[in-house]
Design brief:
- The protein has 639 residues and is an all-alpha fold.
- It has three domains: 1-200, Up-down Bundle (Growth Hormone, Chain: A), CATH 1.20.1250.20; 269-453, Growth Hormone, Chain: A; 474-634, Arc Repressor Mutant, subunit A (Orthogonal Bundle).
- 73% of the residues lie in helices and 2% in strands.
- It has helices spanning 9-12, 17-38, 43-50, 54-57, 59-82, 84-103, 108-136, 142-170, 174-178, 180-194, 209-229, 236-256, 273-295, 304-328, 335-355, 360-388, 394-426, 432-450, 464-468, 486-508, 516-527, 533-540, 544-556, 577-600, 603-627, 631-634, and strands spanning 560-564, 571-575.
- The chain has a two-stranded antiparallel ribbon.
- The longest helix is centred in the middle third of the chain and has 33 residues, at 394-426.
- The protein is globular.
C-alpha cells in the first residue's frame, strides 16, 4: 500500500543524482512560500465578493497556519515509518487538488474549509522537504543543499507579491490558487522520477494520538494568542484563554511523552544543545525574517511600489547568501562559525536600520544586509539540527524545524504589531517603526546567543537512567579493569563494539544484502570522490586484496564506477546513484545503530571507552598524518 517507486536507472546512476533530487524538493519549497506570500493580497477582493468583514476573511490565512503548524511534526513522524517520498508526493496531490477546490469555492466558509485541506498537504510537504534533502546528498554537502532549498523559499517569498498583485488585478483572486496547479503537477512528476526511494526505517507501533492532540492544542493556542496581538479581532478573554491552553498543553506534552512507548516527540532527542538551542535559533531567525515584511507596509511616507521594491531586498539577499554561502565565507569554516557570522550580520543590519533615517535607499541596503545574514545563519542552523538528530527520524526532525518556522512567522507579525501599537501611543509616528525594529533586534541577539551553545560531540555517553536499565550481555564478559595493560583492554573493547555494531546493523535492516565492510567502503568513497583503491585501503585499514574484492563486488552491482586516473596508471572510484542511495540508507540508521551497539555493551566497557575517547582522537589524527602524506594531496576531497 505504501510502496515507493524507484528512480529510473539513468537518473539513479547520474553523478549529480543527489542535486537533481534537491531541485525537485525546491519546486515544493518555492510553491509553499509563493502561496504563503500571495494569499493576503486577496483579502480586499474576498471582502467585496462575499460581503464579509475583514475579521472573517483573516481566517482564510489563519486556518491554514493553524493546521500546518499543528500537523507538520505528525506528518514527519508518519513519513519516517512508511516512507518520506511516498508522503511527500501524496502531499503534492492533496495540496494541488485542494488548490483547485479553493479556486472554485462558492463561499467564504467553503474557502476556509478547503484551505484547511490544503494545509494538510502543505504539512506533508514541509515535514519531508528537509528530510529528503538530507538523505539525497552526502553529509558534507548537506549545508549547501539546505541553502539551495532555503534560496528557493526566498525566491517564492520575493516573487509572491508581484505575481499575486498581477493575478488579482488582471484575472481575479481565484487564479491565486489556480497558479498552484501547474506548479504542483510539474513538481509531482519531478518528484516521482528524481527523488530517491526511502525505505521503511521504523515501525509505527500505534500512533501517539494523545501526543498529537496535546501538540495541536499547544500550537493552536499559541498561534491564536499571537494572532490576537497581531490584530485578530477576538475578545481579550479568548486570547488569554488560548495562551493558558497553550501552556497547559505544553506541560501535557512534557508529562505524557516519557510515558508512552513511541511518542510523537521523543524528548530525549531534544536534549543535545545543538537541537534545543538550534530550534530556538530557528524560531528567532524566522521571526526576524518575516517581521520587516509586516512592518514596512504599515509605515507612512512611501508609495506601495516603493515599499514593494524595498522589501524585495530582504528575500533577494537571503537567496544570494543561502545559495552562494559557501563562496561568501571561507570553505573550511564549520557551521557554528557561519552561524555566528550570519547572526552578527543580521543584528548589525537591524541596529543600522534603527539608527538610520529609514528612507527607501537606507532601508533597501539594511534589509539586503539583513537578508545576507539570515541566509548564512538559517541553512547552517538547520543543518546543525538535522546532523544532531538521528537520520532515521529526519522526517520528525524536519517537522520540528518547520514548526519553529511557522511559530516564528506568526511571532514576527505579532512583535511588529505590538511594538507599533504601544509605541504609537506615546511616541511620534516616525519613532514607532524604530521601536519595532529594536524589538526585532532583540530576537536577532537571541539567535546569536544560541550559537554559543556547547560544542561537545554528539556522543556524550548514556545517562544514569539508561545505564541502570542496561543488562549484561552473556556474549560479552565484564572486563576486569586494571587486570591487563590498558592498550589490551582498549583493543578488546573496540573489537567488542564492532561486533555489537554488526549485530545492531543486522537487526536494523536484515534485508540489506550489503555487508558492513561494503557499506563502510561506499561511505568512504562518498566522502572522497575520485579516491584510488590504494588510498582507500589505507583509509579503511584493509589489505589491498580485500579492497579489490569489495570494489569488484560493488562495481558488479552498479554502485561504483571506475575511471582511469590522471596519469592513466591507476583507476579512480566514484559512486553511482545506486551507491549514493545505499550510503544514504546506511547513514540514516548509523546513529541509531551506534546507540544500539553502545547499549549492548556492559557499563564497564562503556566507561572504559568513554574515558579513552580523547586519546583515541589524538591517536587517529597521528595515524592519519603518518600513514601516507600523499593521502592529503592525491585524492580530491581528502583533508
Amino acid at each position: 500500500m505504501f510502496a515507493e517507486s524507484a528512480r529510473p536507472r539513468l537518473v539513479r546512476e547520474h553523478p549529480n543524482a543527489g542535486w537533481l533530487a534537491v531541485g525537485a524538493v525546491c519546486l515544493g519549497a518555492f510553491m509553499g512560500q509563493l502561496d504563503a506570500s500571495i494569499v493576503t493580497l486577496t483579502f480586499p477582493s474576498l471582502q467585496r465578493e462575499f460581503g464579509a468583514p475583514l475579521a472573517a476573511v483573516q481566517w482564510v490565512s489563519l486556518a491554514y497556519l493553524l493546521t500546518l503548524v499543528g500537523l507538520v511534526v505528525a506528518a514527519g513522524r508518519v513519513a519516517d515509518a512508511i516512507g518520506r517520498k511516498f508522503v511527500y508526493l501524496q502531499g503534492f496531490v492533496v495540496f494541488t487538488v485542494a488548490s483547485v477546490a479553493c479556486a472554485l469555492a462558492p463561499g467564504l466558509g467553503w474557502l476556509i474549509g478547503f484551505r484547511v485541506v490544503q494545509a494538510v498537504g502543505a504539512a506533508m510537504l514541509q515535514a519531508n522537504s528537509v528530510a529528503l534533502v538530507v538523505t539525497s546528498v552526502p553529509p558534507r554537502r548537506m549545508r549547501a543543499a539546505l541553502g539551495v532549498q532555503a534560496g528557493a523559499q526566498a525566491l517564492g517569498l520575493a516573487l509572491g507579491p508581484a505575481i499575486g498583485g498581477v493575478l488579482v488585478a488582471s484575472i481575479g483572486w481565484r487564479w491565486v490558487y489556480g497558479v498552484n496547479v501547474p506548479v504542483g503537477c510539474i513538481a509531482l512528476i519531478a518528484g516521482r522520477y528524481l527523488l530517491p526511494r526511502t525505505r521503511q526505517r521504523s515501525v509505527l507501533n500505534g500512533f501517539d494520538w494523545r501526543g498529537l492532540l496535546l501538540l495541536v492544542g499547544a500550537t493552536t493556542g499559541a498561534l491564536v494568542a499571537i494572532s490576537a496581538v497581531s490584530g485578530l479581532p477576538v475578545p481579550a478573554w479568548f486570547a488569554i484563554a488560548s495562551a493558558i491552553l497553550s501552556m497547559l498543553c505544553v506541560a501535557g506534552v512534557l508529562w505524557w511523552s516519557p510515558r508512552v512507548r513511541d511518542p510523537l516527540i521523543d524528548l530525549s532527542s531534544l536534549r543535545p544543545p545543538a537541537v534545543s538551542a538550534g530550534l530556538v535559533g530557528a524560531f528567532a531567525a524566522y521571526l526576524v525574517l518575516f517581521g520587516p515584511l509586516a512592518l514596512f507596509p504599515q509605515m507612512h511616507g512611501a508609495t506601495l511600489a516603493a515599499t514593494g521594491l524595498v522589501l524585495t531586498a530582504l528575500p533577494v539577499g537571503f537567496a544570494v547568501a543561502a545559495i552562494g554561502g559557501a563562496r561568501l565565507l571561507p570553505e573550511h569554516w564549520d557551521g557554528r562559525r557561519r552561524e555566528r557570522v550570519g547572526s552578527a550580520v543580521a543584528a548589525i543590519a537591524l541596529a543600522a536600520l534603527a539608527l538610520s533615517p529609514m528612507t527607501p535607499s537606507w532601508s533597501f541596503g539594511c534589509l539586503g544586509a539583513l537578508g545576507l545574514g539570515l541566509g548564512i545563519f538559517i541553512p547552517s542552523n538547520n543543518a546543525g539540527i538535522m546532523s544532531a538528530l538521528p537520520r532515521g527520524k529526519s522526517g520528525t526532525s524536519g517537522g520540528l524545524v518547520n514548526m519553529s518556522r511557522g511559530l516564528g512567522t506568526a511571532g514576527g507579525v505579532a512583535v511588529v504589531t505590538l511594538a507599533l501599537h504601544y509605541a504609537g501611543r506615546a511616541e511620534s509616528v516616525s519613532t514607532a517603526p524604530r521601536i519595532a525594529v529594536i524589538g526585532l533586534l532583540a530576537f536577532a541577539v537571541l539567535a546569536a546567543a544560541t550559537t554559543m551553545r556547547s560544542s561537545r560531540a554528539v556522543f556524550e555517553g548514556p545517562s544514569e537512567q539508561e545505564e541502570s536499565s542496561m543488562t549484561v550481555s552473556a556474549a560479552e564478559p565484564v572486563p576486569a579493569l586494571g587486570a591487563r595493560p590498558d592498550e589490551t583492554a582498549l583493543a578488546e573493547v573496540i573489537a567488542c563494539l564492532r561486533r555489537a555494531m554488526r549485530r545492531a546493523a543486522r537487526a536494523a535492516d536484515p534485508a540489506n544484502a550489503l555487508s558492513v565492510a561494503q557499506l563502510e567502503l561506499l561511505s568512504c568513497v562518498s566522502e572522497h570522490p575520485g579516491i584510488r583503491p590504494g588510498q582507500l585501503a589505507r583509509l579503511l585499514r584493509l589489505a589491498p586484496n580485500s579492497v579489490t574484492t569489495l570494489v569488484n563486488g560493488l562495481a558488479a552491482q552498479h554502485m561504483i564506477t571506475r575511471a582511469p586516473g590522471d596519469d592513466r596508471r591507476a583507476v579512480t572510484l566514484t559512486l553511482t546513484g545506486s551507491g549514493q542511495e545505499a550510503v544514504g540508507s546506511w547513514q540514516a540508521t548509523n546513529t541509531d545503530i551506534l546507540r544500539a551497539a553502545l547499549a549492548d555493551l556492559h557499563p564497564g566497557w562503556q566507561h572504559l571507552l568513554s574515558a579513552a575517547m580523547p586519546a583515541l582522537d589524538e591517536l587517529t589524527r597521528a595515524i592519519d598524518t603518518r600513514t601516507d602524506p600523499a593521502l592529503q594531496t592525491s585524492a580530491p576531497g581528502l583533508s
